[in-house]
Amino acid sequence: MWGGGAARALTRALRRRRAAAALPGAAGGLRDILQDYNRKRQLKSGSTLPVSLTGMKSNMFTVKRPFSTSHSSVDLKEMKKFQLLAHKWWDEEGEYAALHSMNDIRVPFIRDTLLSMSSNYHLGNPLSGIKILDVGCGGGLLSEPLGRLGASVTGIDPVEDNIRTADRHKSFDPVLAKRIQYKSSSLEEIVEESMETFDVIVASEVVEHVADLETFIKCCSQVLKPEGSLFITTINKTQLSYVLGIVVAEKIMGIVPEGTHEWEKFVPPEELERLLESNGFSVKSMKGMLYNPLSGSWSWVESTSLNYAVHAVKAGAPAQSHATDTLPETDVQQRSATAGTAGTVPDSAV
Predict the structure, then answer these.
(1) Residue 292: pLDDT above 90?
(2) Which of 31, 130, 143, 163 could disulfide-link 155, Cβ–Cβ 3.0 to 4.6 Å?
(3) Does the pLDDT value for residue 208 go beyond 80?
(4) What is the layout of strands, in order, in the sheet containing 180-184?
(5) SS3 24
(6) Alpha carbon distance 345, 107 (integer Å)
(7) Which residues pair with 122 in a beta bridge?
């Protein structure tokens, strides 16, 4: 009988073989799908936007994100999608495999950014004393590694089955059971009880699923402390993101279930930055992310034409100059190296 490691290796090998076989001959299929997509869009909205396979790396669609007047960030259609997959969050080779591997870059990004902003440091628990709100936490894939780094994490998700999955998984680790609490709640529902409560908010792979992005960003500002940090990862709205993020990832390779994403809800970096600044945030960094389906791994890239990550800081009291407020880069690197063992998440837990 196959052991767990051997079975996972075999699954990865089969997935890579399917990916390698699917991509080279996909051009004709991509054109057909894109043309069909255009026809449906024209019938639906009268739009005559061209979609082509040429120049897709730099061109961006001009269609604006649909605006919701509900003043709620929760989209009931999105909830139904994730309801069906609530029991699969911790399947490392399943529908959420790409999110598991994303921890390899998003957890260090959050950790190192926070270390660079603080003079407080706890050996072995670098994020000790920091209160983090994980919005749209799902099954807790990001909440758990942040908890292992010492943070006090509150994970919220409107899908009750997601919260049940997250609660059940953290219960196997007594340390996490003390550091993490989960709530079945929308962001709007916790605003009144949590005004300026959290030091950090993470919204990873969430904003492309919300109904009203402006309301979402406003609520983030309300529950975040002055000078608190907001971390977002999401998908740009480009021709390339449509082809690779939906056509290839969903329709051809099955990296994520078909229908997981709607291109209309993808968020251009310029739009996200505008919404952040209009709600009292200052964008400190923006980095491109790239997923390699053959290796199942993520990496940082210069281009933000596909996935990207943002770190923004909420405005606070006028900054005063203190020698200890900001750590020299060499010190940050040294501390990050020391914290590396605490920040490393075992394969079985990512």
Answers:
(1) yes
(2) 143
(3) yes
(4) 180-184, 152-157, 131-135, 198-204, 224-235, 307-314, 281-292, 297-301
(5) coil
(6) 9
(7) none
